Amino acid sequence: MAEKSVCTIEGCGKSVIARGWCHAHYKRWRLHGDPQGGRERPNVEEYYQTVVLPYEGDDCLFWPFAKATQDGRYAIMIGPMKKKVLVHRRLCEEVEGPAPSIKHEATHSCGNGHLACVAKRHLSWKTHRENMADKILHGTSNRGSRNGLAKLNEHQVRRIKRRKGQDTTIALAKKYGVSSASISQIFTGKAWAWVE
Fold first, then answer.
1. Residue (of 130, 125, 131, 117) closest to 88 by Cα position
2. Sequence ranges of the domains in the chain
């Protein structure tokens, strides 16, 4: 099997797609006429050291750079091996010390973690359960109708709960376009338990 060619731009190391360049450098050449043209890459580490670490304010400080993980979180590359580390987790370790256990998460008291807040006064270590409870308090949880896959809303669930013992799960499932298992989970409190 033939070895993959590597991009000819010094320090890149990605696979070649055309003209001896990787996809990113080829795209830059097409847009700017130069495989290294376009916007300068920001010095993320410098911003972290000179802006984020010294910041002592109570207001949120938002990470201005692109999301760097597949699940949409903000990361920073550190060290010679360019290890990807979540910015808020790295900051929490520097301010609060190492996580008490591997199950602890760096959490935001402001409720703006999803907006990339990196204010160190807002960060602390909490368990996943505590973090999820905070999301509910902040209104950032994606439970219920905020979940993109939800087929019901809170109003419909209240109606369904009122029909318990009067209609069959099959009849309610047909009426609301969900499975009878979904109706059963609503009745037993396994789903939508917070809706009165």
1. 117
2. 1-40, 44-138, 151-188
